[in-house]
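Title: Prediction job returns without error message
Component: structure pipeline
Severity: low
Priority: P3
Assignee: unassigned

Description:
Job completed but the reporter wants confirmation the result is attached to the right record. Sequence as submitted:
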Amino acid sequence: MLDRSGRVASIMQKKFGVEKGDRVVIYMPMVIEAAFVILACARLGAIHSVVFGGFAPKELASRIDDCFPKLIVTSSYGIEPGKHIAYPPIVEEALGFCKVEKAKEIPRLIKQRTGELDGKLVYKDLNEFYHDYDTLMDGEKTVAAAVAVPSNHPLYILYTSGTTG
């Protein structure tokens, strides 16, 4: 756990410039990589906002507008009862709804899931703002140092009842 979350933290720090106090939106299904990203944020003193993968683009856009993240971490798809939901099209539509300037330029780190669909929902031709999680993890050997934060430093942004951040 420490090795993987520390390597993700190193990637977030070196590749995307995530620092103490920056925000990171996590729009992922319930996969272990989501936990690594949450722990990586804590390690860097970054503030994460987990957005439920079943949210539609307008709801995702409102959360992006609320915190204007330095990075969005997502996945190629999620699994709902009886169907697979492709996440990149939702992320792109959400960024189109955002009111914050330059929202479409926020970098995206994507975990490509291949198991259940034999790669049918693997996105190969995404725009230049997408970066492949596994490729970066394969190349990263450094575990980022933990950043000290005061006891009252925010850890996450949580929405109560899905509405209030």
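Comment from assignee: result matches the submitted record. The CA atoms of residues 52 and 154 lie 20 Å apart.
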